[in-house]
Design a protein that fits this description.
2 domains; 14 helices; globular; alpha/beta
């Protein structure tokens, strides 16, 4: 089969990176007035999630140190629903994999699934809170504000969602997603979040925003009184920073998916897929006809949520799936379509050769390709040579070198885009 050659390309996204993460955290929290809400030596519960947030260990340690400097006794708890296979040990392990454990944080990590009921919302949704967090003198959430992979709204992923699904642990996550199936995710998040706020336990949160290069671009201390309004503002801002595939494609190749990349395994608003099985549901995003996924990130620890959004996958991915962790996560979120097993073959070459004839091109040399490491890392990618005119006409794109043929090894597998990304970095000024 004749494949178009590939051009290494850089997308020039605005760089919002914060030069000194620790200093930025300390400045935000000192100006927040959070500590004035508590008595000296109060126990402060710090809720931390499980996504692949840049600099998360540095950020959390800086928060711990802030509370200690104010004479408080902080501890960390996993603010997670069904992650870590919905076990206390598994959720502590998830944090540890991101460098968040007692030795690095110099404070206790309390991981448990026990919850306290906070009563019911007007919609009849019973709200819950992690028992360790409830028994503290105050709770602070540490989380990234970003677009959600399942829906679009004014509040999506962020502090409010952590207060709902994260604070509610597995017991809450199961019920919340069931209610959200009919009420909608945004409605559920707002409703449960407001019920949690009525507990009087929440101090506020530290909202983390990342730019399109996956750099920490902004951190904002959000007091409890402003959480809902402020999160709307922050989400609108970070959406304006969003990275995306630069043009429509027949086939998008991803080296990996994983929970460390996106809650849905791959960002649905990058690959233009829905966890419910829909093709190209986001009209503002480039149309992607087929998605080929080569592997599962080792930092996903077997959780292959998002597998079902691919059209074809390499056998190596399926061999790495921890089906128990995957089933628990997907079924808790009421998204069984997201873990359907796609067609799969033993080599990259066969995967591409089998899927290319399905995109509606009679001349297969006209099939257009894009190749990225994952849906989070979009600054360096490869685009097929038959897109050269579109590449040249896009002011955000820079060609980094000559076009090269698809590089298959003796076994018929591609040599990864990450290797080529390193080469592109060397070529770029």
């Amino acid at each position: 089969m004749l494949f178009s050659r590939l051009i290494p390309v850089r997308q020039h996204f605005p760089d919002h990176r914060i030069p000194d993460i620790r200093d930025a955290v300390q400045r935000e929290l000192r100006a927040s007035g959070f500590s004035a809400r508590l008595q000296p030596a109060a126990r402060v519960a710090l809720g931390v999630g499980s996504r692949g947030i840049a600099n998360i260990a540095t950020i959390v340690r800086a928060v711990v140190d802030y509370w200690k400097s104010e004479g408080m006794r902080p501890f960390i708890f996993p603010a997670m629903g069904s992650h870590g296979a919905a076990t206390a040990e598994g959720q502590a392990d998830v944090l540890a994999h991101y460098g968040i454990h007692e030795a690095t944080m110099d404070c206790p990590i309390l991981s448990a699934l026990d919850v306290i009921s906070l009563g019911k919302t007007a919609d009849g949704i019973e709200a819950f809170m992690d028992r360790n967090a409830y028994d503290s003198d105050g709770v602070m959430m540490i989380g990234r504000v970003k677009w959600h992979t399942d829906f679009a709204g004014k509040i999506e992923s962020g502090l409010f969602k952590m207060m709902a699904i994260g604070l509610g642990k597995f017991a809450g996550a199961q019920r919340y997603h069931t209610h959200a199936y009919k009420l909608g995710l945004e409605h559920m998040i707002r409703s449960v979040g407001r019920q949690v706020l009525k507990s009087g336990k929440i101090l506020g949160g530290l909202a983390i925003l990342e730019d399109a290069n996956h750099n920490t671009g902004q951190m904002t201390a959000v007091p409890v009184e402003e959480m809902e309004r402020k999160e709307e503002e922050l989400l609108a801002l970070v959406k304006s920073w969003k990275g995306r595939v630069p043009m429509p494609l027949d086939i998008l190749i991803l080296d990996e998916i994983g929970k460390n990349v996106s809650g849905a395994g791959m960002d649905t608003k990058v690959v233009n897929r829905s966890v419910y099985g829909d093709y190209n549901p986001w009209p503002e995003e480039p149309r992607i006809e087929r998605v080929f996924v080569r592997d599962l990130s080792p930092h996903s620890y077997g959780n292959a949520v998002g597998l079902g959004m691919a059209d074809v996958v390499h056998n190596r991915l399926l061999e790495k799936v921890d089906w128990n962790a995957t089933w628990i996560n997907s079924l808790t979120a009421s998204t069984p379509a997201a873990i359907r097993t796609p067609i799969h073959f033993p080599t990259d070459q066969e995967c591409l050769a089998r899927i290319a004839p399905t995109v509606g091109r009679l001349d297969l040399s006209e099939v257009t390709y894009g190749w990225i490491k994952n849906s989070l890392e979009l600054s360096v990618l490869k685009l097929s040579e038959n897109l050269r005119d579109q590449i040249r006409n896009n002011p955000m794109l820079e060609i980094l070198g000559p076009a090269e043929a698809f590089d298959f090894d003796e076994a018929g597998n591609l040599r990864g885009v990450s290797v080529e990304a390193d080469k592109a970095e060397a070529l770029s000024p």
